[in-house]
Amino acid sequence: MTKDQRIRHHQRELEALMEAKVRAFVLTAGNIDGTEMAEIFVKALPKIRRFAVKYSPPFIATVSRSGSVSMLAIARRAIH
Questions:
Q1: pLDDT number for residue 54
Q2: Of the four listed, 38, 66, 75, 77, which is most buried by Cβ atoms within 10 Å?
Q3: pLDDT of residue 79
Q4: What span, in angstroms and rounded, lies between the C-alpha atoms of 12 and 32?
Q5: Other C-beta atoms within 10 Å of 17: how many?
Q6: What is the pLDDT of residues 24-76, one digit of tens each?
Q7: Alpha-carbon torsion (38, 54, 56, 10), positive or negative
Q8: Could you give the CA distance from residue 69 to residue 9 in angstroms, rounded to a whole number?
Q9: What is the full DSSP assignment across 8-64?
Q10: 43 or 77: whose pLDDT is higher?
Q11: Are 14 and 78 in contact (CB under 8 A)?
Q12: CA angle (8, 27, 66) in 5-degree steps
């Protein structure tokens, strides 16, 4: 889990995550403190678990402030 909102623009980081074959979840909400970040991830945890079971690694998914989880387009291309 990370809060790097601009990860889709950091090609080396993306490549490193894909090469490591991780399941990465990126929080897209900006300007929040640690408590709010934890609350968002706790709210999203059931969706994160389902997502992690549904998709094989490596992938990078986003977690929004509302708790929704979706695949980054760059990760989709890298998986296929």
A1: 93
A2: 75
A3: 46
A4: 26
A5: 22
A6: 898 888 888 999 999 999 999 999 999 999 998 899 899 999 999 999 855 55
A7: negative
A8: 19
A9: GG-HHHHHHHHHTT-EEEEE---S--HHHHHHHHHHHHHHHHHHHHHSPSSEEEEE-
A10: 43
A11: yes
A12: 125
pLDDT for res 80 = 45
**CA separation (Å) from 28 to 14, 68, 80?**
16, 10, 24
21: left (phi over 0), alpha (psi -120 to 50) or beta: left
In the block, tokens 């992690």 appear at: 52
pTM, rounded to two decimals: 0.78
Q: Tell me which residue of 80, 41, 38 sits closest to 58, measured CA to CA.
A: 80
In this structure, what DSSP letter does residue 6 have? T
